[in-house]
């Protein structure tokens, strides 16, 4: 962001040691770090707010496009009448079960291919 070279950082460090003094330099750097962290937090919140506003604007624009496209499609293809009642009238109810269905309670149906429940096969 600031594009500082090593020589420029060294000059800033020497000036800081001379002006602030070696005894107070750690406290000054800690204070500067806290201020930089606060500044970064403010910038992150600002950027997040801008991103949210841009997303909101894009969504509104997209909704407008979808609404106009939907209106165009509805004009070009008018709604067809509902045929659901006609198809139900053609179907006839089954009075008897299919011929191949067996009654599960019928004792004559002796299937021996399944072991009884609870009897594990060795």
Could you describe the 3D structure shown?
The protein has 122 residues and is an all-alpha fold. The chain has a domain at 7-77. It contains 3 helices and no strands. The protein has helices spanning 6-20, 25-76, 84-90.
What's the gist of this structure?
This protein is mainly alpha-helical and 122 residues long. 61% of the residues lie in helices and 0% in strands.
Portion in strands: under 5%
The topology string of helices and strands comes to HHH
> What integer is the average pLDDT?
80
Treating each run of at least 4 consecutive H or I residues as one helix, how many helices?
Answer: 3
The separation of the N and C termini measures 75 Å
Rg, Å, rounded: 40 Å
Shape assignment: elongated
Helix fraction, binned, reads 55-70%
**Which stretches are low in confidence, meaning pLDDT under 50 for 5 or more residues running?**
none
Largest sheet: none
Number of E strands: 0
The secondary structure category is mainly alpha
Ordered list of secondary-structure elements with their pairings:
Blueprint: H1 6-20, H2 25-76, H3 84-90
Summarize this structure as a short list of keywords or feature phrases:
single chain, 3 helices, mainly alpha, elongated, 122 residues
């Amino acid at each position: 962001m600031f594009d500082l070279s090593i020589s420029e950082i060294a000059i800033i460090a020497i000036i800081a040691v001379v002006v602030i003094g070696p005894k107070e330099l750690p406290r000054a750097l800690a204070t500067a770090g806290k201020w930089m962290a606060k500044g970064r937090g403010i910038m992150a919140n600002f950027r997040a707010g801008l991103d949210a506003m841009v997303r909101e604007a894009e969504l509104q624009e997209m909704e407008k496009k979808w609404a106009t496209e939907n209106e165009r499609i509805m004009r070009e293809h008018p709604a067809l009448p509902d045929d659901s009642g006609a198809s139900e009238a053609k179907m006839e109810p089954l009075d008897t079960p299919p011929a191949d269905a067996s009654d599960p309670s019928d004792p004559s149906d002796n299937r021996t291919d399944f072991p009884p429940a609870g009897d594990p096969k060795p």
